[in-house]
Amino acid sequence: MNTGAYTRGDGLSSDEIIIEINGVIENRNKFINGEKVKFIFNNITGLKNENGKSYPGLSLYIVKNDKDTVLQNDDLLANLEDGTELSPLQLQANFTAVLPHDNEESYKALVKIWDKKGDGSLNYELPFTMEANKLLKIKKEKLTFTEIYLWDKTENHVVVNNEINIANEFIFALEGIDGLEIVDGKAFPSLSIEIIDNNGKFQCFRDV
Fold first, then answer.
1. 202 pLDDT higher than 80
2. Residue 150: which of 131, 137, 167 has the closest Cα?
3. What domain of life does the UniProt record list for this protein's source (predicted)?
């Protein structure tokens, strides 16, 4: 794959490995901060079968700069104690790419599938990098923040481009705001939203 992904099977194999980003199948290894990344393994074979069931294990690790583990899921299928009768078998591992990206950090996603009733395993490794969400143009004065983004509450992911579904519900999120004056241990923020159409025509204004 041109993503630089590496797969090694020892008794287990998958017909197809798909990268899905925010619900769309894509073939890239550069993720925008806040995107939902899913790895889909189709038609996994080689698992030992007992009474019509197989017993897979599935782990996911995210490693930064080849040394720091920033996400660790030892077994995403820990609750699958009674096995599965699914055939063909598809397994999925996902994470939300909210990771440091200001210092050219490099990352690897490490996925392992193994047979809990046998010795087979399948390892998948994807090197990737992160980039800032460039959708929003932000001008700040006296206030600082850690993250500001538009969240699609209906689809449950960060908005990364300027195409949105008008029927969906959105949240404008501001995290880690600092610089507000504190009075008696309290801050008194104010927030307003102004909407203008693509012709520059004013649509609405709201204090929230």
1. no
2. 137
3. Bacteria
Mean pLDDT for the stretch of residues 75-98: 95
126 Cβ contact partners less than 8 Å away, ≥ 6 residues apart = 3, 4, 5, 6, 19, 29, 39, 108, 109, 111
Q: What is the spatial distance between Cα 157 and Cα 208, in angstroms, rounded to a whole number?
A: 23
Q: Which helix (H) or strand (E) holds 68?
A: strand 68-73
β-strand pairing of 121-131 with 6-10: antiparallel
H/E/C letters for each residue in 149-168? EEEECCCCEECCCCCCCCCC
The residue with tokens 């197989």 is 54
For the chain, the residue count is: 208
From residue 5, alpha-carbon distances to 18, 111, 127, 191 in Å are 11, 11, 7, 44
What is the spatial distance between Cα 62 and Cα 180, in angstroms, rounded to a whole number?
Answer: 35
Q: Tokens standing for 104?
A: 């050219």
Helix (H), strand (E) counts: the chain: 0, 17
Per the prediction, the chain carries an average pLDDT of 91
Confidence of residue 1 (pLDDT cuts 50, 70, 90): low
Q: How would you label 70-82 residue by residue, b for 16+ Cβ within 10 Å and e otherwise?
A: ebebeebbeebee
Measured CA to CA, the distance from residue 72 to residue 121 in angstroms comes to: 18
- Give 124 or 207, the one with higher predicted confidence: 124
